[in-house]
Amino acid sequence: MGSVSEYRGKIVLVNLWATWCPPCREEIPSLERLWRLERGRGVVVLGIDQGESSRVVEAFARHSGVSYPLLIDTDQRYGRAYGSLGLPTTILVDRNGRVFQSVDGILSFAQMQAAVNTVLAAAR
Amino acid sequence: MSNLRRDALVAGSALVLSAFAQVLFPGWSGYHSWQYATISVILAWVTGRYAFCALFGRDGAVGRGLAWSAGGGLLIGLAGLASGLLGPDTQSFVRPPGMVQTSPDLDLAVSFPNVDPDTMMLSDAALTLRDHGGKLWKLRSGGQLWKGSALIQALPRPAVFIEAANAKGERVTVTQPDGAAFLSPVLLFPQTVVIGGESLPSDAFAVPALDREVKAILFSESDLARAPRAPHASSAVLFAVETMRTQVLVPGSIGFATSGERVRLGGVALHAMIGTYPALALSSAPDQLTFFVGVTFVVIGIGASTVIRHRERNDRASAPEVPEYSTQRMDAEDASIGT
């Protein structure tokens, strides 16, 4: 389904999630809204499903109207690499590929936007 | 060979070997015992006494050379003694893939690698060590690194890579809510359970998408030989599946899986791949610099004494022979010649 390296040079909000995770599903409308609103400013919202099959993820994405890019982490490597304590976990990566912020648990749209604005301001 | 030299040779060799044993066979608690310290002190005293006497000529020219070796042995022994007395007991760190363990004392950060099932089954995972200056070392399972006054080992521990699927064969997420890494499919078996008087490694994981929690117990070949209805294999995992929310055992959900075998238990298709994953062990060791300075002294001493001995032998060979005096008495006739 692709690779994270494709988004080098952009601000990437990585969201580790799974279809069975209720708070992850609750967060999806905010992620979708952020993606639609901020992609013009070089911001990418990237959902990385943890350990599920592509059929399950594709069906869920179609049903929920997710339009931001999704990756599937079959071996759950990203969760381990980022030291995820649970799902969802959101990691904000700046244009240089550095982790700017990592949050364990659900985020509101306002919190997501504030974090993205901080990175955008720092990049100017 | 003088008694003093012979005693020092035995004591010095024992001293060096006892210190080097800390590197060859690390982790033994005896290195930190008073018995080890007492023996080391006695051996150091015998070696040191010879070094002092020989240095001031009590053992001749060869002894002066050997004084360097005795001094080196003493240095090595003292480094071993200090490590035993002052160094910490061996510490083991069992960490999941993706974690970083820092050690400020050693100025090291140790990364536990992310692994795929094949790497684990081949016991091929390697720890990555990075010091403050960015220098990197790779430590494969079973390998060791001697740095400063510490010995760092990557000890292979039994581990299992788990894959889970639903009834349609679609992969589902494996989590470890009670483990150090929530999203790790690698079981490290930090606990033990007693079954039939035998203590066996145990772990647990969850399959939230299917509302299942799975307990896993690792059986070795000898454990399997004793267990009833167990498979004939070098190792296997015994699974027991419960519901995640109500913690009720699902009927017919207890069963063995050998490495690579896919089993369906309690509504979950489980695929267990048994291998090893490295744990980090830190042991105290003689200070590396002191040890190698000591070894250098030993070598210099042996070399010097050999050269001195060789020279002494050559000097003896090239010296003019002392004339032999005849014990025969000259008779009167001979004595009269020339008179």
Q: Short description, anyone?
A:
The complex is a heterodimer of chains A (124) and B (339). Chain A is an alpha/beta fold and 124 residues long.
How big is the Rg of chain A? 13 Å
* Low confidence ranges of chain A: none
Cα end-to-end separation of chain A: 32 Å
End-to-end Cα distance of chain B:
55 Å
What is the strand tally of chain A?
5
* Strand order in the largest sheet of chain A: 3-2-1-4-5
- Secondary-structure-based class of chain B equals alpha+beta
Task: State the major sheet of chain B.
Answer: 7 strands, antiparallel
Mean pLDDT score of chain A: 91
From N to C, what is the helix and strand string of chain A?
Answer: EHEHEHEEH
What is the structural class of chain A? Answer: alpha/beta
SS element count, helices of chain B: 7
The shape of chain A is: globular
Number of helices of chain A: 4
Query: What string, H for helix and E for strand, traces the elements of chain B in order?
Result: HHHEEEHEEEEEEEEEHEEEEHH
The largest sheet of chain A is: 5 strands, mixed
State the total count of DSSP E strands of chain B: 16
Please indicate the percent range of residues of chain A in DSSP E strands (runs of 2 or more).
15-25%
The portion of residues assigned to helices of chain A is: 25-40%
Tell me the fraction of residues in β-strands of chain B, as a range: 25-35%
